[in-house]
Each structure stands twice: as C-alpha cells, then as structure tokens.
Design brief:
The structure is a single chain. By secondary structure, this protein is α/β, with parallel strands linked by helices. It contains 10 helices and 9 strands. It has a 9-stranded mixed beta sheet with strand order 6-3-2-1-4-5-7-8-9, sandwiched between helices. Strand 4, helix 4 and strand 5 form a beta-alpha-beta unit. Helix 5 packs across helix 6. It is globular.
Length: 339
C-alpha cells in the first residue's frame, strides 16, 4: 500500500484503529472513482482529436484566497493586517486543457455561495461551451456549500431544458481524494505569485496568464451575479433528494424534464431518480416565466457595490496611505473599482 495515498481523514482514522480491511476497501473505492474520472476525460479527448465536439469534460473548484499586496519582502508592520482579498475560481476544460480562472475582487462577488458559484458556472457555460456540445461531463469536490447542494441540482435541471447542453452528467470524487487538474493549475499560479510583487488585481490577472498557457485569467467585471435560490424556487421544490452527500454520479437530461438520476458510485448499476419540479410547472413555465406571472432571471440580479465604509477606511489607513506611494499611487483606483 502506498502511504502517500492515505491522506484523508477517513484514511488516518482507519489506520489509527488498525482497521486495515476497511482501509483497503476505502482506498479501492477512491481509486475506482478516480479511474472513472480519468477514463471519462480520455474519452472526450479522443473524440476531440478526431473533430468530434459533442462531449466535453469540465471541472471546477475554488482556490485559497490571497491578500493584496503580495510582497517579495513583506513589511513587518503589514504582517498582522488584513489586506485586499483576492479570490480564485477555476473552471477547467479537461478536454482542451485550458482553465478559465476567475480573479475575484473583494466587495464585488458574493463569496463561495450558490449565488457566487452558480453565477460563475453560468457565465462559463454561456461563453465557453460550444453549441455543438451534446453532453457535458462535470466534476467537482464534495463541498456542500459550493457544489453539492439542491440549488446546483436545480440549476443544472433548468439549464438542460432552457440553455443547454441537452445532457449534463456530474461526478464527485471521494472526500479527501479529490485532487484534480484545477489543483495543479492553481499550484502554478501560486508559484508565479511567489516570484512577483503584486499590488493590484490587474497584476494578479497578469500573473495568472503568465503562469502557464493553460491558465486564462477572467476579469471580475464580466460576471453578473444572481440570487439563484429565489429564482429557482419558483420552479423547483416539490421534492428533494435526501442524503445528497452519499451519491457520486448524477445525470440531468432534457429527455426527462425536471427529473434527476443519481447513484452511489460510478460502478453501481442501480439508478435512483426524482422529479424536482413543483406540481403544475411545465417546460413552458421555465422558458417563458413572465407569461405565467413568474419573474425572469434578470429580475434576480444581485447588485454589489464594493467595499463598505468601515472596510474601505481600514484599507485606506493600513495599506493605501503607507504603501501606495510614489509610482504606486496609480494603482489606487484599481483596488476600489471593479476591474
């Protein structure tokens, strides 16, 4: 057994209790799910190489936020202060090898919530997925706040019916064994940032683009955030999937409107299914909500106005006044305005 693979909490607990048989089973399950992911990616790549664009594999994840400025030699007085927060969300097309990295400005995104995560996915699907795609294979970790929740399920059901692609399949790796291509590309960004001095979000985006040809920075200002919970509850909520965390494979299809299929492992032959549409809701309600007295998506746009007065005053005092001096004064606008 390779001990380097025993890094999740379950692995540690089983080893401490010397439950080696259970540990072997746990690792075998983790290996099985990873093999399924790798085989799916290779299948889409083979099709892509011969000109078949009908299937694409996409994975998404958040990276640890950083604080700006990023110094090569940080002043001691700034060590205990909280600088401008800069977040990262990466959506990787594992078929083509390029990851769109959203560089997120403090005060201009709602955090790693359904409003934030789904809005970024919505932008990516609308701008980066070709119309030729018939099946989108999606992969992510098991974080319930970000990915594995009823609002993402509802969004994907809505998406296959209204915007496409017609079929979306999602796959979750076993918690603690979730390393994927996004992590490697985030690592290259981190390594690049360690070599530079970055005072602004624009400089961070340059670092992302310069880290590798596979990383493409996306500006925060292209995003529109929506209150997805409130929008989707107009159509969904009749039933819910209980025990959502135990299922690893999900399918959403326009051929089964409003119905999600799911199973516990990628190898499981038994599928369960549930219709999540509210009673009386039809495809026409989803595509023309105003016709039925329902509100369209633009009505749910979340307006973000930047930093609050207290936070802005703190940053002015602790960072802008002492460090954004001389030539660096030209960067001040970039720190407070959406870019």
């Amino acid at each position: 057994m390779n001990k380097r693979t025993d890094f999740c909490e379950t692995c540690i607990l089983l080893r401490e209790k010397k439950l080696l048989q259970e540990l072997e089973l746990h690792l075998a399950q983790a290996k099985c799910e990873r093999k399924f992911m790798n085989d799916t990616i290779k299948n889409t790549q083979r099709k892509f190489e011969v000109g078949n664009r009908s299937v694409v594999h996409v994975s998404w994840d958040m990276a640890e936020a950083i604080r700006l400025p990023v110094w090569k030699d940080q002043p001691g007085s700034a060590y205990f202060e909280s600088g401008f927060q800069c977040g990262f969300c990466g959506v990787s097309n594992n078929t083509t090898g390029v990851m769109d990295t959203y560089v997120l400005q403090e005060g201009y995104w709602p955090g790693a919530t359904p409003e934030g995560i789904i809005s970024m996915l919505h932008h990516y699907f609308n701008t980066s997925i070709d119309n030729d795609v018939e099946i989108l294979e999606g992969m992510m970790d098991n974080c319930s706040a970000q990915n594995k929740n009823r609002w993402l399920l509802q969004y994907l059901l809505y998406r296959v019916l209204v915007w496409g692609p017609a079929n979306i399949h999602t796959h979750y790796l076993i918690p603690g064994h979730t390393k994927m291509r996004n992590d490697a590309l985030f690592g290259l960004i981190k390594r690049m940032l360690a070599q530079l001095e970055c005072f602004t979000y624009a400089q961070v985006r340059e670092a992302v683009d310069g880290s590798t040809a596979a990383n493409k920075a996306v500006q925060n200002k292209v995003l529109i955030f929506y209150a997805w919970k409130e929008f989707l509850e107009q159509f969904f909520g009749g039933q819910s999937v209980t025990g959502i965390m135990q299922y690893r494979r999900w399918e959403f299809s326009c051929a089964c409107p409003g119905t999600v299929r799911y199973k516990k492992t990628s190898e499981d032959v038994h599928w369960e299914s549930k219709t999540l549409l509210r009673p009386g809701i039809t495809l026409e309600h989803l595509r023309e909500p105003e016709k039925f007295g329902l509100r369209p998506l633009p009505d749910f746009e979340v307006k973000l106005n930047g930093l609050g007065e207290v936070r802005r005053s703190y940053l002015q005092k602790k960072f802008i006044q002492p460090y954004f001096i001389g030539e660096k004064q030209q960067f001040i606008g970039d720190m407070f305005e959406l870019s």
